[in-house]
Specification:
Helix content is 44%, strand content 12%. With 234 residues, the protein is of the alpha/beta class. It folds into 2 domains: 6-18 and 91-229, 3-Layer(aba) Sandwich (Rossmann fold), CATH 3.40.50; 21-86. Strands 5-4-1-6-7-8 form a 6-stranded parallel sheet. α9 links the parallel β7 and β8. The longest helix is centred in the N-terminal third of the chain and has 19 residues, at 68-86. The radius of gyration is 17 Å and the shape is globular. The N and C termini lie close together (7 Å). The mean pLDDT is 94. The chain binds magnesium ion.
Length: 234
């Protein structure tokens, strides 16, 4: 079953739950730069969105004209607030995350990330979870981050290009397995031609995820369907 060239993991809802840290940090940044956070922003669902898209939509909901410099400033302040917010009792590493990464490490398939987080936000969250050591944070790392584009498919495509560069051959997107927790992970993976495994450890249950037809859906990384597709069983 283990026929993939690379496994690219989403972070929030897939490897960890940051306990609202991202939202609190983002709201603080919004407050500082645009004034009190409006109800529409407070109620925004961030699931599967890239950080830059969150900034664009939050500014639109706040009635603030979008400017690249303002979005940049907002995200810089967000990253400054994030470390303090991660230190929360609600932060948790999801079941099977550490064991899965440990077992995949050193196998023939490469390990990487495909996340809507900015690179620094991704690293801060994974460091807090004790999982940062599984990934290569150098520019050669097999990653797609928010810096690669606002639309999630752009960061999937960027990550696949880095897998090709890293392996020194043109990798077919179908050789790459994306592991995520939202319908956006599925649509972005499909747009690029990657396979996709969904885990119901974020805000979508198995039925909601099955409805968008990933290659497999599992309750968590510990469950059989996930382990089978990751080549850890069967
Ligand atoms: Mg996610």
């Amino acid at each position: 079953m283990n026929r993939f060239a690379a496994f690219l993991f989403d972070i929030d809802g897939t490897l960890l739950r940051a306990g609202g840290a991202g939202r609190r940090a983002f709201n603080k940044a919004m407050e500082e730069l645009t004034g009190p956070v409006v109800a529409g922003v407070a109620e925004m669902k961030f699931d599967g969105m890239t950080d830059r898209l969150i900034a664009r939509e939050a500014l639109a909901l706040s009635g603030v004209a979008f400017e690249e410099r303002l979005a940049d400033a907002l995200l810089v302040r967000y990253l400054e607030h994030l470390p303090g917010e991660l230190d929360s009792p609600a932060f948790r590493v999801l079941p099977g995350a550490a064991a899965t990464l440990a077992r995949l490490q050193g196998r023939s398939a490469a390990l990487g990330l495909c996340t809507g987080n900015l690179a620094l936000g991704a690293r801060l969250k994974l460091r807090h979870a004790g999982l940062d050591g599984f990934f290569d944070w150098s520019p050669a790392g097999l990653h797609g981050f928010a810096e690669d584009g606002e639309a999630r498919a752009r960061l999937v495509a960027a990550a696949v290009a880095r897998v090709s560069a890293g392996l020194g051959r043109t990798v077919d997107p179908a050789e790459v397995l994306i592991i995520g927790d939202t319908p956006r992970d599925v649509s972005a993976a499909r747009e690029v031609g990657c396979r996709v495994l969904c885990v119901a450890t974020g805000n979508f249950d198995v039925a909601a995820l099955a409805a968008v037809h990933p290659d497999a859906v599992a309750e968590s990384l510990e469950h059989g369907e996930a382990r089978l597709l990751l080549g850890l069983e069967g």
